[in-house]
Amino acid sequence: MALQCLSFFKVFFSLFQEKTHHPFLFHSCPLSATFASMATHLSALGAGRLPEPLKLKNQKIGLVTAEWNHQVTDALLSGALEVLRKHGARDKNLVIKHVPGSFELTLGAQWLAARNDIAAVICLGCVIQGETPHFDYICQAVSHGITRVSLDHNKPVIFGVLTTNTLQQALDRAGGKHGNKGEEAAYTALRMLQF
């Protein structure tokens, strides 16, 4: 049954993207709709689309980055930091933590979100499809976990996790031809702090 649901979602979102030319749904994770906020460089999340400049001088932002696939996640972190600094974040107010892999992002996010001095948490990771269903379990657990942390702590906890079929697809989205999803995760945090 689970495999039938997974197949249905993959087919549904592939058809949806083809019909609507919607550029920001991920094909590979079974919870593709959850990731609609993660747009591509073609989306409205660019720097010019923030309703007004947000100054982060006095707000602390937590960033949790997975070490697994570090060549990708280091680039995501660099992109996120660049955007936050551009919008006035001071280094002393950027709390950067590293966890072993994307699965551990949820607990790292929970620890940061529990702090009263942190306004938002950005989770950055990369899960690449392998030959086993491990990929699907990790994607589902991480997406549900990050959502749960956000709801439990009533603050923005941003999903900045790439879920790709290949390393090249991940690199293309970590400063390559499809932009940097770390930047977009930071813009998402800024937008949510303006809510």
Describe the protein in words:
The protein is built from six helices and six strands; from the N terminus they run αβαβαβαβαββα. With 195 residues, the protein is an alpha/beta fold. It has one domain: 3-Layer(aba) Sandwich (Rossmann fold). The strands form two sheets. Strands 2-1-3-4 form a four-stranded parallel beta sheet, sandwiched between helices. Strands 5-6 form a two-stranded antiparallel ribbon. α2 packs across α6 and α3 packs parallel to α4. The longest helix has 20 residues, at 134-153. The termini are far apart.
Write the layout of secondary structure elements.
Elements: H1 2-20, E1 60-66, H2 70-86, E2 94-99, H3 105-113, E3 118-128, H4 134-153, E4 157-164, H5 167-172, E5 174-176, E6 179-180, H6 181-193
Parallel strand pairs: 1-2, 1-3, 3-4
Antiparallel strand pairs: 5-6
Helix pairs in contact: 2-6, 3-4
Summed up, what is this model?
By secondary structure, this protein is of the alpha/beta class. It has a single domain (37-193), classed as 3-Layer(aba) Sandwich (Rossmann fold). It is built from six helices and six strands; from the N terminus they run αβαβαβαβαββα.
